[in-house]
Amino acid sequence: MSVEPARIILVDDHPLVRDGLRARLDSVPHLRVTGEAGNANEALALAASETAPPDLALMDVGMAGMSGIELAARFHEQFPGIRVLMLSMHDNIEYVKQAMRAGASGYVLKDSPAAEIIQAIDAVLAGKTFFSAGLASRLFQAQSMQTPLERLTPRELDILDALAEGLSSKQIAQQHGLSVRTVETHRLNLKRKLDIDGQAELIKFAVEHRRT
Question: What Gene Ontology molecular-function terms does this entry list (predicted)?
Fold first, then answer.
């Protein structure tokens, strides 16, 4: 039984960068570039595709208009099932931290070897995180000083508060203008980030750490 290639969209405001990435990724059998976007609006339109939504967005950090980090946050809120991997020329740990808070699953530098970019894509598609060499140890040091709540995105904190109020996924979806499936994905991400197994334990944590 054949496995469908993972669907990837490229988000970068430089056509030459997109051309180079497409040429490299299209040579990998298990990956397929299904769309390109030069700005946030184009990227959001591709993400909203009902026929073939992407599995992963390879997204530049520095773009005209809405930045890649802001766009990653929009993706995380509206399309949490789409993994986001940041691609940047900036070797800046603060950018990495901002990207992770926005919901990105990895951060790789543009001058990385092609093999490392493909390795990063595969890791993120598998539900893992990936950082270019040198960034991982610096990020770990920064994160080791954070509380579990500080690792959550603003949308995840909203979902956590709603769980503390005893709301169901359907009620949370109605409250925040999301689909039930999107809320369920956020709940799964919360359990993963907080290292929690069951729903009862997640709700108990939500009640104990309710912000209001």
Answer: DNA binding
Residue 111 and residue 153 in one domain: no
The residue among 162, 155, 147, 151 whose CA lies nearest residue 186 is 155
Identify which of 180, 1, 152, 170 has the alpha carbon closest to the alpha carbon of residue 73: 152
50 and 126 in a common domain: yes
pLDDT tens, 20-41? 999 999 999 999 999 999 999 9
Q: Helix H segments across the chain?
A: 15-25, 40-47, 68-78, 93-102, 114-125, 135-143, 154-164, 169-176, 180-194, 199-208
Strand 6-11 relative to strand 31-37, pairing: parallel
Give the CA count within 13 Å in the CB-facing half-sphere of 160: 27
DSSP one-letter code for 148: G
Q: pLDDT for 111-126, tens place per residue?
A: 888 899 999 999 999 9
Q: Is residue 204 part of a domain?
A: yes
Domains: count for the chain: 2
SS3 category, 97? helix
* HSE-CB of 189 using CA atoms within 13 angstroms: 31
